[in-house]
Amino acid sequence: MTKITIEPATGTWSVRAGGAVIGESGNALELREGSYPPVIYFPRADIATAFLDPSDRSTTCPHKGTASYYSIVTKSRTIENAAWSYESPIADVSEIEGHLAFHTGDLVTVERV
């Protein structure tokens, strides 16, 4: 089985989309899964959810459960399926319930500030 660890992410983290900060948190979590790069999960309360539009996409991970996806709506465009959340994660990773993670790239950045 893939080893998953979840720890508090050190420092303050921000997420930007379309050039705007849509969230900042000193309470983010860092999830490490096998050889994948770490993923920062932000408490939902620390994200400007007005920028998030639920999408029809969902995926299932045998180690975390079913993920629901959100598109990020910025002034100039919609970034499809750019965020995800495990609404009812598997018990072993229950800490990520109520948190959001983001696909990073040219349009979305997650960084420690």
UniProtKB/TrEMBL annotation:
One Pfam family this sequence matches: NTP_transf_9
Cross-referenced InterPro entries: DUF427, DUF427_sf
Signal peptide range: none
Domain DUF427: 14-104
Protein name stated in the entry: DUF427 domain-containing protein
Organism: Roseovarius aquimarinus
